[in-house]
Structures are given as structure tokens and as C-alpha cells.
């Protein structure tokens, strides 16, 4: 009979090094996927995923199964991802401010607020449907993005996601609703196009 | 925000229920409540259709696979961390580690700093008076006064006549 994640972690705590290998094999792909979509950089995502496993391993002696293993692991991953996104944004802002000083007032200001409303032209030049969706996910606020990724791809329970994001279950439901509503607006051209094509008469 | 302003009370209630209904995790009573509302509200029905389409679109996104070197890199990091911890494991606390490091650094610094000794003042710049008193106070010269009078004695005339002659000589000269 397969051991549960909690049992595997307790075995790691007891000194069974092989059990951490089983957890690694089970969760490395979901973790890398989640982190990649959170930080938008595959190399950074891999680095963070390794950091998650490293922290899990180093904390094995203090591990107490007060929550699901996935809640604990994704909480570490989410915190690392949010910190990385914020650090990166601060770096970008410093670069933009430096550039704004360098280019002077006559040129386009670097701190100009980006217009996230997609135009038809932007969608036409987007290479694929997947890229449109990824761009819409990227444009979500960080916490909404984390909520959608945990909800849609990890299929965690609502109480688990709420604990990972450190909010109430009710707040999580509201967060998810707003996130999907934002995606609905961002992907409106795509959704409308698909509605039209599904309603179109069959053509050879 | 906008959606609660545009819709009625029942529409606002969808904020807590619609996603859960669409992902199949709503309880039966909540499920019936959502279906009853969708049956009479075209706005929420459209929203539900769009959300369902978005769920499908998200499912279509390609998965990202870890690189082939992922496991090896992770093992290397774990080993490096274990080595680091072994090296410092004998020190019970970071505060003590800092104190030990500071003590070692201070010892090295003190050992490497040259001592400043002024040999000139110790040897060549002794004042003449001090030198004199030092010599005078040496044990072998403790009767210096007496010894010094031996020179005066040697200058005395050899006989009392010589003394009287000397005194007459002095009186006539005065």
C-alpha cells in the first residue's frame, strides 16, 4: 500500500533518506509548473523549486504533521515565489527609474503605467492561444495568480489554498471570483472568437 | 467592486458560490441555489459559460517539465548544505560563533602588531645629571664624598712649613 505524503515525511524525519526521493519524484513537476507560472522564468522557477525541497529536507527533524504535506510545501513555494516576484519588480523599478533619469524628460517616461487592456492588434500578433492565456495569467495580481494556479492546477482543497495564502476560505472564494473575472475581461476577444466559431455553421 | 454594483443581491451571492459550483465542489444545497439563479439570470449564465471556457483554456496550457539536471543540482545543494552544517555543527549558537571568531581575530591582530620601543631615549638621551647621580648611587661608590676628597688631600703641602709659607704669601699678595 502506498504511503501518504505525511507518512513519507515522517519516515524522512526518522532517517529514511529514500522517502524524500519519492516526494521529490511526485512533486517536482507540479512545483516547477506552479513556480514557473508565478515567476515567469523557468531557470528561476527551478532554482526556487530546489530551494523548496531543500527547506523541506532541512526541516525534517522539526516536521510535525499538523497540516497536509502539500499545504506546507506549497506555502513555502508560494512565499518564495511572492518574494521573488516582488524582488524582481523592485529591481525593474530601480532600472526604470535609472533609465528615466538617463533619458531625460523629452523621451518616453520609463515609469509610465502599462496599459494591460489587450488590443485586437496585440491578439493578432500573439503567436498562439496559449501565449494569450499565459499573458492574461501573468497580468493577474500576484495573490490572484497564486490562487488560480493552486486552484486550477494543483486541485487543492479550498481550506488548503486558504491556509497557503494565509486568508479565510470566504476571502479565497472572493479572490478566485475576482481572478477569473479579470481573466474573463482579458481573454474576452478569445472567448468571443471561440463562441462565434462554435456557433458558426459547418463549413468545408 | 464593479460586479456587485452592476448586479442584484442574488448576483452578488454568486461571488462566493459560482467558482465552487463550476469546479464541482459545491454542496448540494449550494448547487441548487446556483442553478436556480442561473436559470433566471442571463448575465450570470454568460459569466458561468465564460468561466467554464477559461477553465478549459487553462487546462490546455502545456506543462513545464523540470530540466534533466534538476535532481542532480538539488542533490548537490543538499550535500553542500549538509557539509556546511557539519562544519559549523559543533558551535551551539550563532552568537557564540561570532564571539569565537572575534576573539580569534583579535588575538591574530595583537600578535601581528609590532611593539613600539624607543631605544634612543633608553640609551643615549640620559641627561648628564641623571647619569652622574646614577653613578654616584652605585653601591661601590656610596662613599663618593670621601673618595673625592682624596684628590684634595693629594694637593696638600707635604710639611707645616709649607703651610705657613703659603699663608704669608697670601697675606702679602692681599
Please explain how this structure is put together.
- The complex is a heterodimer of chains A (204) and B (174).
- Chain A has 204 residues and is mainly alpha-helical.
- Chain A has two domains: 1-112, RNA polymerase sigma factor, region 2, helix turn helix motif (Rna Polymerase Sigma Factor, Chain: A), CATH 1.10.1740; 115-198, Arc Repressor Mutant, subunit A, CATH 1.10.10.10.
- Helix content of chain A is 73%, strand content 0%.
- Chain A has helices at residues 5-13, 17-39, 42-58, 69-103, 120-125, 129-138, 142-152, 158-164, 169-186, 188-199.
- The longest helix of chain A has 35 residues, at 69-103.
- Chain A is globular.
- The model of chain A has no long low-confidence stretch (mean pLDDT 84).
- Chain B is an all-alpha fold.
- Chain B has two domains: 2-60, no CATH class; 98-174, no CATH class.
- Chain B contains ten helices and no strands.
- Chain B has helices at residues 2-6, 9-22, 28-40, 42-60, 70-88, 94-112, 119-123, 128-137, 144-154, 160-173.
- The radius of gyration of chain B is 56 Å and the shape is rod-shaped.
- The interface between A and B is large, with 40 and 35 residues.
| Biggest interface, CB < 8 A | A-B, 40 and 35 residues
CATH topology-level name of the largest domain in chain A: Rna Polymerase Sigma Factor, Chain: A
Model regions low in confidence, pLDDT < 50 over at least 5 residues of chain B: 1-5, 163-174
- How far apart are the termini of chain A? 53 Å
Decide which structural class fits the backbone of chain A: mainly alpha
Question: What are the segments of chain A in which pLDDT stays under 50 over at least 5 consecutive residues?
Answer: none
Number of DSSP-assigned strands of chain B = 0
Mean pLDDT of chain B, to the nearest integer, reads 74
Rg of chain B, nearest Å: 56 Å
Dominant shape of chain A: globular
Q: Number of folding domains of chain B?
A: 2
**CATH architecture descriptor of the largest domain in chain A:** Orthogonal Bundle
Amino acid at each position: 500500500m502506498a504511503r501518504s505524503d505525511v507518512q513519507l515525511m515522517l519516515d524522512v524525519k526518522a532517517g529514511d533518506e529514500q522517502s524524500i526521493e519519492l516526494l521529490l519524484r511526485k512533486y517536482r513537476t507540479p512545483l516547477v509548473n506552479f513556480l514557473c507560472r508565478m515567476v515567469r522564468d523557468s531557470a528561476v522557477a527551478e532554482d526556487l523549486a530546489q530551494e523548496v525541497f531543500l527547506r523541506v529536507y532541512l526541516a525534517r527533524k522539526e516536521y510535525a504533521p499538523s497540516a497536509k504535506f502539500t499545504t506546507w510545501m506549497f506555502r513555502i513555494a508560494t512565499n518564495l515565489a511572492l518574494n521573488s516576484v516582488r524582488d524582481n519588480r523592485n529591481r525593474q523599478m530601480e532600472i526604470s527609474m535609472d533609465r528615466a533619469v538617463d533619458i531625460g524628460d523629452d523621451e518616453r517616461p520609463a515609469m509610465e503605467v502599462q496599459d494591460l487592456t489587450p488590443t485586437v492588434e496585440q491578439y493578432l500578433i500573439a503567436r498562439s492561444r496559449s501565449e494569450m492565456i499565459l499573458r492574461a495569467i501573468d497580468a493577474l495580481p500576484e495573490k490572484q495568480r497564486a490562487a488560480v494556479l493552486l486552484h486550477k492546477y494543483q486541485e487543492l482543497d479550498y481550506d488548503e489554498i486558504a491556509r497557503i495564502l494565509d486568508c479565510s476560505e470566504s476571502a479565497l472564494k472572493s479572490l478566485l471570483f475576482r481572478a477569473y473575472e479579470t481573466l474573463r475581461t482579458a481573454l474576452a476577444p478569445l472567448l468571443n472568437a471561440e463562441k462565434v466559431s462554435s456557433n458558426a455553421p459547418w463549413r468545408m | 467592486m464593479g460586479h456587485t454594483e452592476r448586479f442584484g443581491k442574488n448576483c452578488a451571492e454568486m461571488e462566493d458560490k459560482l467558482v465552487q459550483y463550476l469546479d464541482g465542489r459545491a454542496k448540494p444545497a449550494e448547487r441548487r441555489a446556483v442553478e436556480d439563479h442561473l436559470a433566471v439570470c442571463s448575465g450570470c449564465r454568460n459569466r458561468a459559460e465564460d468561466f467554464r471556457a477559461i477553465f478549459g483554456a487553462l487546462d490546455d496550457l502545456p506543462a513545464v517539465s523540470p530540466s534533466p539536471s534538476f535532481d542532480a543540482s538539488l542533490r548537490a545543494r543538499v550535500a553542500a548544505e549538509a557539509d556546511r552544517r557539519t562544519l559549523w555543527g559543533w558551535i551551539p549558537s550563532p552568537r557564540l560563533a561570532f564571539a569565537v571568531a572575534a576573539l580569534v581575530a583579535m588575538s591574530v591582530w595583537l600578535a601581528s602588531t609590532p611593539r613600539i620601543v624607543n631605544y634612543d631615549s633608553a640609551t643615549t638621551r640620559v641627561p648628564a645629571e641623571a647619569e652622574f647621580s646614577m653613578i654616584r648611587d652605585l653601591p661601590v661608590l656610596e662613599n663618593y664624598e670621601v673618595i673625592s676628597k682624596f684628590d684634595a688631600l693629594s694637593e696638600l703641602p707635604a710639611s707645616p712649613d709649607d703651610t705657613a709659607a703659603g699663608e704669608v704669601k697670601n697675606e702679602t699678595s692681599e
